[in-house]
Each structure stands twice: as structure tokens, then as C-alpha cells.
Amino acid sequence: MHSAFRSAHRHYEVAASNRIGTSMDSAPASAGPYVPPTFQGWIYNYFGFNPSPTVAGDTATPAGDGVPNLIKYALGLNPMVGCSGTSQGMPSTQVAASDSNGYLALTFSGTATGVAYIVEATCNLTSGWNPLQTWPVGSPPGTVTVTDTAAISCTPERFIRLRVTRP
């Protein structure tokens, strides 16, 4: 038994044949290029082959919402759909209570394997950020909540963020 393939416009039909005869053609099936589950594959899916970096680069924001492509890739979001701080899939912050103190907490869902996820905190936006938890490239965290180590009452200001990097 062997198979015969008939192609027309990237749609395929299959028929099998042996010494008795040839079967009916199968229902048409579509085939497209294999797109790997990487940042470059994500770019290809949304922007096509060889797009401009001003639209498809790591820091580009084609939806005009200020959320860079690399963050949207890491969170499994569509780069062409605008997001706000309350959009589904965006990280959210809350105050977690523990030992009678309040602590900032950040919840997010990280799904991409080609990036590192780092949750960081600081007491002002001019000094350095301190890492609270890190997931290396190849280890997406899934849905997690990371709680700051400094109580809100211990500092006049406190900030928490998700930083995403790729090799």
C-alpha cells in the first residue's frame, strides 16, 4: 500500500492505493509552515516574515498601549490588542496582610519558555531594584503571586514590578 498526495493551494488530499485499487480522496486538509513556540515564532504569527523592528521589536508597542511586545509574549497576550492595568492577562497588584503588616504583592501568569521572569521591588524609582523571585529561561512560572519582603508601613514609598528578559 502507498499514498498519493494531491496538492492545490496549500490544501492537501490523500488517497491510498494497493493491488485492489485506489481509495476515494480524503477531505481537504490545510497545511502551513511550522512556527516554533519562541519569541520569533510569536512575531511571525502576528507580524509575518521580516517585519519592521519599529512594530515587531522587543520594546515596540504596536497597540499604542505602552505594553512592549516582549511583555505581551511572556504573558501570552495579543500585541495588536490594547491593554490597560486592569485588562485580563495583565499583572495585578494587591496588598497582602501578614503578621499585622501589609505587603505589596504581584500576581501574573507567565507562559513563555524563551524568557526569564524577574519580580523586583524598590523603595524609590531612582535607586536599584531588588529581585524578589526569578524564573530562568525555560522555566515559565505559570500563575503565581510574589509578595514583597518589606512591609508597606516601613517605608514611605514602595514599588513592585515584573521584568522580562530574553537571551
Question: Helix-strand pattern, N to C?
Answer: EEEHHHEEEEEE
Described by strand count, sense and barrel closure, the largest sheet is: 3 strands, antiparallel
Whole-number total of structural domains = 3
Overall pLDDT score:
87
- The amount of beta strand, in percent, is 35-45%
Q: How far is the N terminus from the C terminus?
A: 48 Å
Report the strand count.
9
- Count of separate DSSP helical elements: 3
Strand order of the largest sheet: 1-2-3
Unreliably modeled segments: 1-9
Structural class: mainly beta
Radius of gyration: 24 Å
Choose one word for the global shape: elongated
Summarize the structure in words.
The protein has a 3-stranded antiparallel sheet, with no helix packed on it. Strands 4-5-8 form a 3-stranded antiparallel sheet, with no helix packed on it. The protein has a 3-stranded antiparallel sheet with strand order 7-6-9. It is built from 3 helices and 9 strands; from the N terminus they run βββαααββββββ. It has 167 residues and is mainly beta. The chain folds into 3 domains: 1-32, no CATH class; 39-75, no CATH class; 92-165. A hairpin with a 2-residue loop joins strand 1 (2-8) and strand 2 (11-17).
Q: Could you provide a short overview of the structure?
A:
The protein is mostly beta strands and 167 residues long. It is built from 3 helices and 9 strands.
Question: What are the defining features of this structure?
Answer:
three-stranded antiparallel β-sheet; 12% helix; 3 domains; single chain; disordered N terminus; 167 residues; 3 helices; mainly beta
